[in-house]
Amino acid sequence: NPHHLPPPPRWDTAGQERFKCIASTYYRGAQAIVIVFDVNDVASLEHTRQWLADALKENDPSNVTLFLVGSKKDLSTPAQYSVMEKDALKVAQEMQAEYWAVSSLTGENVRDFFFRVAALTFESSVLAELERSGARKIGDTVRISSNESDLYLPAARKKPKCCQ
Question: What's a Pfam family in this record (predicted)?
Answer without folding.
Answer: Ras
